[in-house]
Amino acid sequence: PPSRTTLFSTLTMFVQTLNPVTGQREWVPEDDEEEHDFEAEMFASAFGDMLNDTDRNVKYEEAIRKAMAKHPGCHVLDIGAGTGLLGMIAAREGAGKVTACETFAPMQEAAEQCIRANHFEHAIELIRKRSTDLTVGASGDLASRADVCTSELVDTELIGEGAIGTMHHAVHNLLKPGAVCIPAAATVTAQLVDSQTLWDWHSLSGASMGGYSLNVMGEEGCPGSAGVPDVHIDRLAAFDGLRGLCDPVNVLHFDWRWGGLESQRATQQDEPGLFEARVLPKRVALRPLPCCS
Q1: What is the pTM of this model?
Q2: Which of 5, 32, 240, 242 fits a disulfide with 197 by CB distance 3.0 to 4.6 angstroms?
Q3: Of these residues, 61, 125, 161, 276, which one is catalytic?
């Protein structure tokens, strides 16, 4: 395998910028890639949060166990292997072969070490590629299409990590008709809420320090680009008195098994006033369901 130096030196780091001509956000290569610490990038990401999320991991384990019980000796494709956790669960529960793919070089190294440390190196084949670059056939990355697909591609907004394109490609190119996908489906719901804390985060109203007013933009001034605060809505509601202005509405539903996407128009505001925030939770179905042919 390539050395640590080779792994990191062959990566290209992209950063998001605002194109002043078009007003659109674009991803461009970072000018000084040698100064970027990819190990720090990995540790600062959400990998640790996911590994410490016991409830999430137990649900994945239960779904994989059910799928392996129904399809003993099957071929499992693990997309976005990360540390290799889902692939190791599948191998332990009776998969005949596990093919794991990972494109992020630091995680490739972590997966290889974890798989070896848990003695699954003979049951799991780690391929250092994007799933969309995998080939199937006698001389391909996969000798045949897989019976089961495990993946962890969802983020806070559900589909921000390219899950739609990745799973659509997998269903049509890497999986057998009727293959099982874990997770099987996901839904994005939205709700309009009233929250002084969220409003303050996106407004300069009242901004001051040491008795000096910093609100030079005025009430109607531009507060800058809105961000996504890393806080769970339940914790915010506990001290903020957050109030819902309408019932939650299912905005998007995605079925990973066939690539179908359904959407509906969001509800109108039930109460007069200003829309202050949108809450976008997600529900992910981890039950093992077959792909549509």
Answers
A1: 0.70
A2: 240
A3: 161
